[in-house]
Every structure is written in structure tokens, then in C-alpha cells.
Amino acid sequence: MKAKLEQIRKSAIDALERVADRDTLFNLEKKFLGRKAELAQVMKDIKSLSDAEKPLVGKLINDIKRDISAIVEKKRTDFSAQSAPGRSGWDKTLPGLKPALGHIHPITRFLEKIEDIFVRMGYEVVEGPEAETQAYNFDLLNFPKDHPARDVQDTFFLDQKGDDGLPMVLRTQTSPVQIRAMEIRKPPVRLLVPGRVFRNEATDAGHETTFYQCEGLVIDQGIRVTDLIGTLDLFIKRLFGQDVKIRVRPHFYPFTEPSMDIDMSCLLCQGGGCPFCKKSGWIETLGSGMVHPNVLKNMGVDPKVYSGFAFGLGIDRLMMLYYGVNDIRLSYSGDLRFIEQF
Ligand SMILES: [Zn+2]
Hints:
The chain is of the alpha+beta class and 342 residues long. The protein folds into two domains: 2-82; 106-339, BirA Bifunctional Protein, domain 2 (2-Layer Sandwich), CATH 3.30.930. Helix content is 37%, strand content 20%. It has helices spanning 2-17, 22-33, 38-45, 53-82, 106-119, 134-137, 175-183, 225-240, 293-298, 315-323, 336-339; strands spanning 124-125, 131-132, 157-161, 167-170, 189-198, 210-220, 246-253, 256-265, 282-291, 307-314. A seven-stranded mixed β-sheet has the order 1-5-6-10-9-8-7, sandwiched between helices. Strand 7 and strand 8 (256-265) form a beta hairpin. Helix 2 packs antiparallel against helix 4 and helix 5 crosses helix 10. The mean pLDDT is 86. Zinc ion binds at residues 266, 268-269, 273-274, 276-277, 281.
């Protein structure tokens, strides 16, 4: 029996030493150590041996099993090491690949700051379509028929006709959304309308055909100019800091009366005058005014009972000021060297 066992040991070791792949190793392991292996058969014959022989043969069988197991383990370790890069190409010890994640565009990020300030003052953020009818883009906003904004040189007209039978336009401001929002609301309202608008003009460092605006509309009983100025002063200070001052200048807009522009003190020279503010010490920031009674009527609001104010600001230029960007065209260039700085 001992001779037979030694024979098994020798043939097992010979076979295992020549193994060149995992599958063969797996099969040989089963053949020499499995339930139907020769060793297992010999184990069954032990009971026919004398009491003196039983422990000796038992020990020999265990030694052979241990030797075979050791070779199997060594071979298995060798195969694992060989499957490192250059072989099967996967090495679990290497650091993983970081997925390339995008992030929010600086204009969106800046808009979210602005929305956050107004939402905390009780405003509701509303959005609307970018292609508008002339009725919504001009007529309902009190633009006279001969207003220059209606000229093809200033506005993009589309081939598609709107409900009013006229060619639709790419909206020149976000104000049409205010009209649309008021069709399904009753005062009191506090609305903030951010969005993309379009102008047909030559592009340079300060002008783009596409840009972002944010408008606001407040309608309630007893709304006064002081509410307008106080709100926008608070907004600018929350955005740019407590030291920023504002000034109010009269202006003209067809949809507000009276209308005014609001400037803020230049952040670069603190009002002293520098090239950025054209030596004036002030930066044009917001257009605003008390909502024109005709516009209120177009919104289905009685101007004898309610009054309101509206304001609008160009997001792109303020974003440039906020982050220190010197060319408006960078925002839409899709240049990752620019975008990834934010
Ligand atoms: Zn300045």
C-alpha cells in the first residue's frame, strides 16, 4: 500500500509541475484531491489494515495531501501574478479611473446666487419660451409700432408665424414671461424671471447676440418707488457686499413709468474712477421702473387698485465683474480652459 501511495505522490507532483494554465490546474486538483481521487479510494481501504499500520498509512496519506496542496497553491499564486498588466490587463491593486464629471457653467452658478437672494425675499422663479410671438415680445409690453427693437437689424425674426399671424421672434428680453406668468396669477405677486435672450448685433468683448437676463416683477397694493430702490439696494449689497453704493438715474423704458437706471459704485476703484468704469466711478447695473398702467391692464390687473415695480439686469456683464472675466465671448466659447476655472 505504501508503494501505491508513493506512486500516487510521484505522478501527482510530476503532473502538477508541468501545469501551464488555470484550467488544467483546476482539473488536476480535482483529480488528486477530490472526492473521487485515488487517495480517497486508498483511505477507504485503511480499515482493512492492522491496528499498527493504520496510523502510519493515515499519516502518509495526509503528508501526500499536504504536498499536493502546497504545489497547487504555489501554482495558483504564480498564475495570479502573471495576470498583472501586460497579461490579461486587470490589476486590482491599481487605483481606479476617476470618472470625468462636468460642473455648472459660471453663468448658471451666478444666476443661482441671484435667485437665492430673491427667493429669500419671497420671490417665485418663473421661466418661459425663448421663441415668442410679436404680441408677447412687443405689443403687450407697450412697445410702439415704430420702436427700433422691432427692426430686423436689432432682432432675430423666425420664418415660423405665431398666433398673431406675424413672424415669431427670438425674445429680446425676458419680459414676455412676466405677461405669461400673470395670465395665470393674481396679485400680490413677486416674480423673478431669469433666461436667455437674443439681439441681432455684432459681437465684441462687451456684446454678444445671446446673453442672459434676469427680470423681476412685484405687484401689490401700495407699491412705491421707495420699495423698488430699497429692494434693489439690498440685492446689490447682498451680492457684492455692504460697502457698495447705488445711485438712481432717470431713464426711459416703454413698459415702466417712471423708469430709472440703477448704477452701483465701481468695485475696482471704489468710486474713484478707473478705465473699467470709464472714469465715472459708477457701473450701470439695472434697468427698472414702476410698471406702466397699460402693461398692468395687459396683465389683467386694475392699475387703480394695484401698482408694481419691475427691474431687469444683464447677467453676463455682472458675472464678468463678479468673477473678474474680461471678455463676454468666453462664456459661450465652450473653451474648457475657461469653463474649468469655475
Ligand atoms: Zn472704476
